[in-house]
Amino acid sequence: MTVFVADTDLAKMASNLDAAINQKFDGILIDHGTAEALEAGVKKALEKKIPVVSFDSILTVPGVTSLEQGDQKMAESTLEQLAKDAGGKGNIVKVWVAGFAPMERRQLAYQAFQKKYPDIKEVASFGTAKDPALDTQTQMEAILKKYPNKGDITAVWTAWDEFAKGAARAIQQAGRTEIKVYGIDLSDEDLQLLQDPKSPWVASAAVDPKDIGRVQVRYLYQKLHGDQTPEKVILDPVYVSRDQLPKDKQINTTQLSEFVKGWGGSQQGYTDWLKAAEKK
């Protein structure tokens, strides 16, 4: 396997895709990007009989299998818990950024949440994809100064774990841990914050990142095998809260399946012939 890294540069990503096609790889996996930047290259790959499986790229090119996380479901699960914990009312801060496929899908759930809970008011909304954790921490610090009293802010909902990290650090450093943080996506570093009883970050929803890679590769193998594959695959997310996690030891995402049902071990795309091939 060869990895081409674009570092969020879409022009570089398109160039990398062209390089992969010219080097005549047997298959191409795409991680993020946009349809506008990638569609021409993807069509070129298919013309040359190179199968393509993408993740979070909103590609709708016939012949491509596009994976996405259950973004709306992830957002709904964290927002519903926020509403339950807040008693259906309060003031919240949203950290979100437009222009990314998963963010846009999560925003749809947020808009539905606003209509469902009119007594939960949004007092601030911000977010940037550049230095997201640090920028969120800085902006959250300013918002806490604007709303200095306990009860001014009930919770912070973040559409990405990088945002949650920044918000949680700002709140904890300001001693305002009555404010709860809810996030989406999960890493080993995130789990440390979730397990910390002093951290305001209390819950997140995510798909095991390892499962994303596993499922993506399975569909590529199916294509190489000549199988018919779906054009769209939605990965099943899992809700993870602090009260599900052990209090006596620090765990990582590999161990999370011992405590949270549904985490890891996805069987999506795992055909009988793949299982047989793996045993061989």
Descriptive overview:
It is a single chain. By secondary structure, the chain is an alpha/beta fold. It has helices at residues 10-22, 35-47, 71-86, 101-116, 132-146, 161-173, 188-195, 209-225, 272-279, and strands spanning 28-31, 52-55, 65-69, 90-95, 120-126, 155-158, 180-184, 201-206, 232-235, 238-241. Strand 6, helix 6 and strand 7 form a beta-alpha-beta unit. Helix content is 42%, strand content 18%. Helix 1 runs parallel beside helix 2, helix 3 (71-86) packs parallel to helix 4 and helix 5 (132-146) packs across helix 6. The model has no long low-confidence stretch (mean pLDDT 96). It starts with 9 loop residues before the first helix and ends with a helix. It has a six-stranded mixed sheet, with helices on both faces. A four-stranded parallel sheet has the order 1-2-3-9, sandwiched between helices.
Strand content: 15-25%
Helical element count?
A: 9
Cα gyration radius (Å): 20 Å
What is the number of E strands?
10
Strand order, biggest sheet? Answer: 5-4-6-7-8-10
The SS-based structural class is alpha/beta
- N-to-C order of helices and strands: HEHEEHEHEHEHEHEHEEH
Helix content estimate: 40-55%
Query: What is the approximate shape?
Result: globular
Which segments are poorly predicted (pLDDT under 50) over 5 or more consecutive residues? Answer: none
How far is it from the N-terminal to the C-terminal residue, by CA? 21 Å
Average pLDDT, rounded to a whole number, is 96
The biggest sheet, with number of strands, parallel, antiparallel or mixed sense and barrel status, is: 6 strands, mixed
